Amino acid sequence: SGLLSRLQTSAATVQTLSSSKSFSQNIPSCLWKLGRLNHVAIAVPDLEKAQSLYKDVLGAQVSETVALPEHGVYTVFVELGNTKLELLHPLGEKSPIASFLQKNKTGGMHHICIEVDDIKAAMTELKKKKIRILSEEPKIGAHGKPVIFLHPKDCHGVLVELEQA
Fold this sequence. Notes:
Methylmalonyl-CoA epimerase involved in propionyl-CoA metabolism. The termini are far apart. This protein has 4 helices and 9 strands. The protein has helices at residues 2-19, 47-57, 96-103, 119-128, and strands at 34-43, 61-62, 66-68, 73-79, 84-90, 108-116, 139-140, 146-150, 160-164.
């Protein structure tokens, strides 16, 4: 009888939860929509060693190195099936990755990138909500699409990149 009583209580709880408002009904509607995680970017002091780890040791599919002078970085993408890792290495002394690696000698997570369906609408709304954007206009990112970065102090210590889907 103890098991039956617990099952009846669990069934009642499930029914109550399923009939209550869902989380999405409590979120105000936006003119833009947050999409999937595109990648997690990792700053690395030695790009060849990092590529080798993911390709030769872990067996991942790893892209060729691409220089992005307008961002001051070399990038390599590691395919993971459901998302990607972006390996970042400095391109020049003024690279934001160079200063990151001065503070974090062994490298580490630099930012996350989330897709949005309308980057301009996202910028407008985020500015109204007092979220600082690190550029006045979107720049073209590693995937050839417009991107913006949100100030980490406004995003709980995480540098967030938004990319047009």
